[in-house]
Inverse folding.
């Protein structure tokens, strides 16, 4: 048995989001956010039933990269069978999550998304303290109400 810490050699491969309508989410992440579609598939396999714990599960999936050079992907999954109810994605709910995208020009990105009908939780907020002081941030929603974040680092940050 190795004494290496668990995180040694680990990398983030993808972030998975369960969606209610794969077509609507593909349109949002692909067209509205401008992400790069990597692959789409409908899958039904024994290993998926074992992995998810749902016998005979059938899934529709689409994977996106935030940019062509990104090694990580965002995997959108719609349960075609065994679909569950929507959760409350509020950021103060235990076990909720959000996904943050860095942008070099938050005002331009905000304006473009707002013009496309994207719903924002907040206006752009300047960060006034902490390690990202001088940057800006805003929360917005995907079509299922999952919270996404735009973050512009402070000028000169790397």
């Amino acid at each position: 048995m190795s004494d290496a810490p668990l995180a040694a050699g680990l990398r983030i491969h993808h972030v998975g989001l369960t969606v209610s309508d794969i077509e609507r989410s593909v349109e949002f992440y692909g067209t509205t956010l401008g992400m790069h579609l990597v692959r789409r598939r409908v899958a039904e396999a024994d290993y998926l039933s074992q992995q998810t714990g749902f016998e005979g599960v059938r899934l529709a999936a689409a994977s996106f990269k935030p940019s062509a050079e990104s090694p990580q992907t965002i995997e959108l999954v719609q349960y075609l069978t065994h679909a569950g109810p929507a959760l409350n994605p509020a950021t103060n709910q235990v076990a909720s999550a959000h996904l943050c995208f860095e942008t070099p020009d938050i005002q331009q990105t905000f304006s473009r998304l707002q013009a496309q009908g994207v719903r924002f939780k907040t206006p752009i907020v300047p960060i006034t303290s902490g390690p990202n002081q001088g940057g800006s941030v805003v929360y917005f929603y995907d079509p299922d109400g999952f919270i996404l974040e735009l973050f512009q680092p402070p000028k000169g940050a790397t």
Q: What stands out?
A: The mean pLDDT is 94. The longest helix spans residues 22-32. The CA atoms of residues 39 and 90 lie 29 Å apart.
